[in-house]
Amino acid sequence: MIKRLFAAALLTTVVGSTLYAQQDFSKVEVKAENLAPGVSVLFGAGGNIGVSHGEDGTVLIDDQYAPLTPKIQAAVAGLGASPVKFLVNTHWHGDHSGGNENFGKAGAVIMAHDNVRVRMASDQNTPFGEVKASPKVALPVITYAEGLKLHLNGEEVRVISVPPAHTDGDSIVHWTKSNVIHMGDLFFHKMSFPFVDRSSGGDVRGVIAAADKVLAMADDNTKIIPGHGAVASKADLVAYRDMLVAIVGKVEAAVKAGKSLEEVKAMKPADGFGVNPNGFIKPDMFVEMVYDSLKV
Ligand SMILES: [Zn+2]
User: Fold this and answer.
1) Element containing residue 292 per DSSP (H, E)
2) Is residue 289, in this structure, part of any structural domain at all?
3) Could you point out which of 36, 65, 87, 219 has its C-alpha 20 to 30 Å from the C-alpha of 129?
4) Is this model's pTM higher than 0.90 or not?
5) Using one digit for the tens of pLDDT, what is the confidence trace for 45-65?
């Protein structure tokens, strides 16, 4: 019995580490794309990183995985920016907050939604395995329920919380003058179906509401940083929102008609939207998350 428990625990650890540490980080290149004066996005492995830099200091939005911190710091320096002073986590997942311990030790002030701190401070179970609690230095020291504003580098940067969507602690970051919005994992841009983390309190209807919220803030020149995938336009986000509405509509009608999950999956409601079917979240997985969001 103990042996079996040990084997199960080991399996969980392996599955858990697959989500966050399968890659060979030595081969990852961190590349920057400038979006506006003093505002850039960094691509590496894990969630896309937003950077604001200028006379008042460097702000990072998310920080990918711990082994990538030196490459991220080098990319920040390559922008002509000073070392990271403030760090915002769009949510708690390790591909967005894995560098917190390193940046916290280096003196960055970490900010996030209240629930990011709660979840990072305790062991979490996700569909991809267990994630252990983070050390104190990795935890956000400034937390909020609704959001906050940063007044620096020549503009107001709004950090805005949304009701449960990808998780129960998602934030959007809006550079109001530069016209750039970071959506974290509220937006997976074509490279995968979205991940609705039901085990972290996520709900697909909240993802649609978050997309609508950002669309109301955006115009045709807005640059939208998704959690994963290339920088997007308002039109790209409209297409994403419309896809979610269409899939949720089909699944909702089927749930109301009393169809089982297997019957709903057989309808293939996520097919035909031009999203990579071999991404991190496969079509059937997404349908399961939608079904699970709607059935209660
Ligand atoms: Zn995530």
Assistant:
1) helix 283-294
2) no
3) 87
4) yes
5) 999 999 999 999 999 999 999
